[in-house]
Amino acid sequence: MKTARKHRRVPVGLPKFWRPKLAEGVKLDAKLIHHDLVHRLETGAATVADLWDWMETGYTYSQMFRLLQEDGVELTQEAEAAVAAQLNTYEPVCKRLREWRKVQLTKPELEIARLATQVFDGLLDLDRNGIAQAAAEWSMRQMAQIRGALA
User: Fold this and answer.
1) b/e map of 35-69 (b: 16 or more CB within 10 Å)?
2) Would you give the end-to-end CA distance of the chain in angstroms?
3) pLDDT per residue as tens digits for the range 80-124
4) Contact 34/139 with Cβ under 8 angstroms?
5) Which of 28, 105, 133, 136 could share a disulfide with 109, CB 3.0–4.6 Å?
6) Cβ proximity of 70 and 99 under 8 Å
7) pTM for the complete prediction?
8) What is the pLDDT confidence band of residue 149, given thresholds at 50, 70 and 90?
9) Which ranges of 71-130 does DSSP label H, i.e. alpha helix?
């Protein structure tokens, strides 16, 4: 007598509402790291690695913004403008890096970075349903493509 094999389906992932929120310590670390990156950019101590980390952080938070909106969180137009403004600084900053071999932000770009940092801190506090983790994974893939294109 043959027994039928039962095909078990491997779950794709946890259902949305079972995914964990970020632990408070992780949120604090993320905020401190991002503020430190902005401080390094401000003081001229930033390396190229710091610039890449800052950009990856911005991509993570922009993706968090989008995912939170899709999840029904109402976010302000001012917050959206701050996130978009930071993303718009990446091209001129990278252009200066290529031309001058120096990591440098202009005063207006630093103001944008400071304002975006405040918005990003708030996004971390709104994290739910694993959104921060999903956004971080997405931004790492984006940065790998960007770095690969520039190599």
Assistant:
1) eebbebbeeeebeeebbebbbbbbbbbbbbbbbbe
2) 61
3) 999 999 999 999 998 998 898 889 899 999 999 999 999 999 999
4) no
5) 105
6) no
7) 0.82
8) confident
9) 77-100, 107-126
Between CA 129 and CA 151 the distance in angstroms is 35
Residue in the block written with tokens 């993303």? 87
Structure tokens belonging to residue 137: 């994974």
Q: What residues contact residue 136 under an 8 Å CB cut-off, 6+ apart?
A: 60
Q: Got the DSSP string for 69-80?
A: HHTT----HHHH
Please report where in the chains the tokens 């029904």 appear, as a residue: 72
9's tokens: 């389906």
Q: Torsion angle of alpha carbons 123, 138, 40, 110, nearest 10°?
A: -60
Element (H, E) at 50: helix 48-70
What pLDDT, in 10s, does the model give residues 49-74? 999 999 999 999 999 999 999 999 99
Which residues, 6 or more positions from 71, have their beta carbon under 8 angstroms from its beta carbon? 128, 129, 131
One-letter identity of residue 73: V
Residue 148's H or E segment, with its range, is helix 131-150
